[in-house]
Design goal:
The chain is mostly helical. It has a domain of 86 residues: Helicase, Ruva Protein, domain 3. It contains 8 helices and 2 strands; from the N terminus they run H-E-E-H-H-H-H-H-H-H. It has a two-stranded antiparallel sheet with strand order 1-2. The termini are far apart.
């Protein structure tokens, strides 16, 4: 019995040492493109945490990273060393290295450079704000809609998108009830407010003496 217990302890020790080494080599938090990402996520899931990268682009980038740098898709992002992290970031900054179709990029034919770009993180936020300010400056229709806080993409605004004092929709029955409540108590409900009820006719003089 003592030998069996000793053998079990010897078998369990290498497993514990392997788990400790794996935990030490994996970072809990990884910073990519200005965002803190959980190190336990695989590469496609980690890329989706970055603003400006969706499901399709993250999958395409992961395939490009695998084919270019030999990093498998199921690799956790926290287990990568600094050199591989730089390779991943370079692929994020220029997705065309992975032969990604142009229609997936979010900044095609840039106004300033004319190139097909893809912006992520704070660069995307700043560039979007600059585009809105430029539309307002050159007084386009989109710029006017942005200036007055209205919807820009052709949505209907009859029931939603109200920015001023909210006024409810009143129906004819509700309006009639409101008018009846405002009418004076002495006259009929439908009579105007300025008119008074007619006084009773005076009795003849002969009847008054009797």
């Amino acid at each position: 019995m003592a030998k069996e217990d000793a053998n079990k302890e010897n078998k369990e020790q290498p497993k514990e040492q392997h788990q400790e080494k794996k935990a030490a080599s994996t970072s809990s938090i990884v910073r990519i493109a200005g965002r803190d990402i959980d190190g336990e996520l695989d590469i496609p899931s980690a890329l989706r945490e970055i603003k400006g990268i969706g499901y399709n682009l993250s999958h395409a980038l992961s395939l490009g990273i695998r084919d270019t740098f030999g990093i498998p898709l199921n690799t956790t992002i926290g287990s990568l060393d600094e050199a591989k992290m730089l390779q991943v970031e370079s692929m994020i900054k220029d997705p065309r290295k992975a032969n990604i179709p142009i229609f997936i990029l979010n900044r095609r034919k840039d106004r300033e450079s004319g190139e097909d770009l893809h912006l992520v993180g704070t660069d995307l936020i700043v560039k979007n704000r600059q585009d809105i300010e430029n539309d307002i400056k050159i007084q386009t229709y989109r710029g006017f809609r942005h200036r007055y806080g209205q919807k820009v993409r052709g949505q209907k605004t009859r029931s939603t998108g109200r920015t001023g004092a909210t006024v409810g929709v009143t129906k004819s029955k509700v309006e009639a009830a409101a008018k009846a409540a405002k009418a004076p108590s002495g006259g009929p409900a439908g009579a105007p407010a300025g008119e008074k009820s007619a006084a009773p006719a005076a009795a003849p003089a002969g009847e008054a003496k009797k």
